[in-house]
UniProtKB/TrEMBL annotation:
Database matches in Gene3D superfamilies: SCP2 sterol-binding domain
Coiled-coil intervals: none
Classification via InterPro entries: SCP2_sterol-bd_dom, SCP2_sterol-bd_dom_sf
Pfam families reported in the protein's UniProt record: SCP2 (PF02036)
The protein's name: SCP2 sterol-binding domain-containing protein
Domain SCP2 intervals: 8-101
Length: 104
């Protein structure tokens, strides 16, 4: 699966109910591919290629780690502890990804 397909899958598995009242931007810096960001705004989700100028949280990883987390094969917290995933900004928001998207 390409990185673009991984993000399309994320967008398709978005849980709008969990995002009610939220206004967040998740920036994904993919070290070996293009960067993307997800704009979550009161129950909606927009996937955009490139960098956002003011993300709520930035997640930095390679495409293999991204695919593992989205497929459910890799636990995000374990990837973080192992140094495969880095976060900048509001790290607690990264834990909300599992609520906002059906992983695996």
């Amino acid at each position: 699966m390409s990185v673009a397909q991984v993000f399309e899958k994320l967008e398709q598995n978005f849980n709008a109910d969990a995002a009610a009242g939220m206004d967040l931007v998740f920036q994904f810096n993919i070290e070996d591919d293009k960067n993307y960001h997800l704009v979550i705004n009161d129950g909606t989700c927009q996937l955009k290629e490139g960098d956002h100028e003011d993300p709520s949280v930035t997640l930095i990883m390679n495409s293999e780690t991204l695919q593992g987390i989205v497929s459910g094969e890799t636990d995000g917290m374990q990837a973080f502890m192992a140094g495969q995933l880095r976060a900048e900004g509001d790290m607690m928001l990264a834990t909300k990804l599992g609520e906002l998207f059906s992983m695996g």
